[in-house]
Amino acid sequence: MSPHPSPLAPHSHHAIGVMGGTFDPIHFGHLRLAEEMAEAVGLERVLFIPAGQPPHRGVPRTAAAHRLEMVRRAVAGNPRFEVDAREVQSPRPSYTVDTLTELRAELDTEQPLWLLLGADAFLDLTSWHEWRRLFDLAHIAVAARPGARLLQSDAMPSELKNEVSQRQAVGGPSGSVLLRQMTPLGISATAIRDTLARHGSVRYLLPDAVLDYIHEHQLYRYP
Ligand code: ATP
Ligand code: MG
Predict the structure, then answer these.
(1) Which run of H or of E encompasses 210?
(2) Is 140 in a helix, a strand, or coil?
């Protein structure tokens, strides 16, 4: 009898999620977004891909190796979550469109790929490098985030709104947009960094394993 096929065999069409971010540090907002979207869309795996040199913002204050290790610790207990270090290992700036192109080349052409985004990131999408191509490479799942008015149609720039309205309920491996509420968690890495800088408590905003790592390496001690 042939061995049971691996769920990740090239011919399986299980959906894969991509959760990008600076993760400086990773927190429960990121993890819940991935967990709730994985459940909603039926994702077999979610790849957490920490950004190396994010093109949209200044160089993160925390070394990529630390941000990567915090993500590793955060996802360690979840068999469906994985870390993908390709962006932090790349010497070039990490554009999402390039990362998705690489992933596409590694996957079966029929395999659905879902880019997972918070609403603030999605509403900024038209500023991303070759943003329209993102829809050719992946489906996009967007989670409402406290403070971002995602589900009001006037919140979206008209170019984005037009693209989305053409993209509803498309089948196949890419091209649709799902806008979805998630459990609202008003957590941000910025607020966590600020609180740590004044030696405040960030317990219960992020996994203990991440907090332990932050303390071991004395991260975020100064504003
Ligand atoms: P910073 O404050 O440094 O910008 P952040 O908390 O926004 O950090 P990012 O790494 O910028 O985290 O975000 C990565 C992704 O996670 C983005 O798509 C963002 O919208 C989403 N995200 C971050 N925090 C939350 C949250 N609390 N709820 C839902 N989505 C979130
Ligand atoms: Mg952010």
Answers:
(1) helix 208-216
(2) strand
Question: What are the tens digits of pLDDT across the range 146-176?
Answer: 766 766 667 889 999 988 888 765 678 999 9
Question: How far is the C-alpha of 153 from the C-alpha of 149, rounded, in Å?
Answer: 9
For the chain, state the CA radius of gyration: 18
Helix (H) / strand (E) containing 103: helix 96-106
Q: How far is the CA of 11 from the centre of ligand 1 (A)?
A: 33
Write out pLDDT tens, residues 62-72. 999 999 999 99
User: Which residue minimizes the CA distance to atom 15 of ligand 1?
Assistant: 21
Ordered structural domains, the chain, with CATH: 15-185 (3.40.50.620)
pTM for this structure? 0.91
- Ligand 1 pocket, 22 CB below 6 A? yes
Length in residues, the chain: 223
- Is ligand 1 within 6 A of the CB of residue 202? no
Count each helix (H run) and each strand (E run) in the chain, helices first: 9, 6
Q: Is the CB of 118 under 6 A from ligand 1?
A: yes
Integer Cα distance of 28 and 139 in angstroms: 23
